[in-house]
């Protein structure tokens, strides 16, 4: 129930992804003068001509950068076509995918029989099998797998792999499901780009920087590392490495500022830096060596990182190791970045968790 709102309008808001139409308001007893007064007072916010939401809902979406969600809901309500579902970049937003820069702001839908364009939206014509359609937050949307297939056919391959890796890390899809989706769409335009992105995806990259670094290593011809490699000394966890080439005892770590600027578990930045130093020292004591890669290193200085890695990877394996390695949690995040609601759920997709 939306606090302080007419029950009939609150029900409409729940059914239509956070918005209601002028017709809903009139059915609840508001004439056009009363509707205009609510909008002027700020109690209601007009999302699109003839479609409104409450001040509280608009403010909550604005504060979380999710206005596009309400704009999409408004387009769906205005079009009134049961067979049209949100898709492509709009579905990517609704599903909480990692978006590349420059994703368009237009609301995108897919319809099995109709193609059209309007102010701020476009409807594409394409087949929509029942398994490719779900409901998230009260909105009809392409399924997660179909959405990834659609955007992977259009986005740059690296951007698509970033999004797919993120989904895999949360356990929202499996690689087998990606393969099935790829085969189903193998004759569609851009299918080769999609298949390439799906084929490069791996379970275990927990940030866009980790994905981009891994892809840069693979593109340079390096062997694939173990991702989220947990190093144990006796029964004690020493640390979890972003990447580890186990035979050579060589690691790759993807460094960002988050662990210092916004450390987890109530630690201060100084605590975070000290913990990282102690962890690194113990790894070195175990004869593990490696490279650390900042986002900026993927450009001009990257050749130096690659040269060092190649030299390190020629180290012969040691037989007297005092540690063991396993992939932590199968490469999955212990706390998902995004919750995957059951189809038809009105539960919000985005989990409130710092990345």
Helix amount: 25-40%
The termini sit apart by 30 Å
Helix/strand order:
HEHHEEHHEHEEEEEHHHHHEEEHHEHE
Q: Residue-averaged pLDDT, rounded? A: 90
Number of helices: 14
Record field, number of beta strands = 14
Which of globular, elongated, flat, extended, rod-shaped describes the shape? Answer: elongated
- SSE class: alpha+beta
Largest sheet: 5 strands, mixed
The tally of structural domains comes to: 3
Radius of gyration: 24 Å
- Sheet with most strands: strand arrangement: 13-12-11-10-14
β-strand amount:
15-25%
Provide the low-confidence segments as ranges.
Answer: 342-355
Please name the defining characteristics of this protein.
single chain; 355 residues; alpha+beta; 3 domains; 5-stranded mixed sheet; 4-stranded mixed sheet; elongated; disordered C terminus
């Amino acid at each position: 129930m939306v606090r302080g709102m007419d029950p009939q309008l609150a029900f409409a808001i729940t059914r239509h992804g956070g918005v209601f139409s002028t017709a809903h308001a009139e059915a609840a007893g508001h004439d056009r003068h009363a509707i205009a007064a609510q909008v002027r007072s700020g109690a209601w916010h007009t999302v699109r001509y003839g479609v409104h939401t409450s001040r509280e809902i608009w403010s909550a979406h604005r504060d979380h950068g999710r206005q596009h969600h309400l704009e999409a809901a408004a387009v769906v309500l205005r079009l009134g076509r049961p067979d049209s579902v949100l898709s492509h970049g709009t579905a990517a937003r609704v599903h909480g995918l990692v978006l590349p820069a420059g994703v368009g702001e237009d609301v995108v839908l897919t319809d099995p029989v109709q193609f059209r364009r309007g102010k701020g939206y476009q409807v594409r014509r394409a087949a929509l099998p029942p398994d490719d359609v779900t409901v998230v937050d009260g909105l009809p949307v392409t399924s997660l797998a179909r959405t990834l297939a659609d955007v992977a056919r259009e986005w740059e391959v690296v951007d698509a792999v970033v999004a797919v890796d993120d989904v895999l890390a949360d356990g929202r899809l499996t690689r087998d499901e990606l393969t099935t989706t790829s085969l189903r769409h193998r004759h569609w335009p851009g299918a080769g780009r999609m298949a390439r992105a799906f084929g490069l995806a791996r379970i275990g990259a927990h940030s866009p920087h980790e994905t981009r670094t891994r892809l840069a290593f693979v593109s340079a011809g390096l062997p694939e590392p173990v991702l989220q490699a947990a190093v144990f000394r006796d029964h004690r966890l020493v640390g979890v490495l972003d990447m580890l080439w186990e035979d050579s005892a060589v690691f790759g770590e993807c460094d960002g500022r988050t662990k210092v600027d916004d450390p987890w578990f109530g630690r201060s930045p100084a605590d975070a830096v000290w913990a990282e130093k102690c962890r690194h020292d113990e790894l070195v004591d175990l004869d593990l060596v490696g490279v650390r890669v900042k986002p900026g290193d993927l450009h001009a200085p990257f050749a130096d990182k690659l040269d060092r890695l190649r030299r390190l990877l020629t180290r012969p394996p040691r037989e007297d190791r005092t540690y063991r390695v396993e992939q932590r949690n199968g490469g999955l995040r212990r706390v998902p970045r995004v919750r995957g609601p059951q189809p038809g759920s009105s539960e919000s997709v985005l989990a409130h968790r710092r990345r």
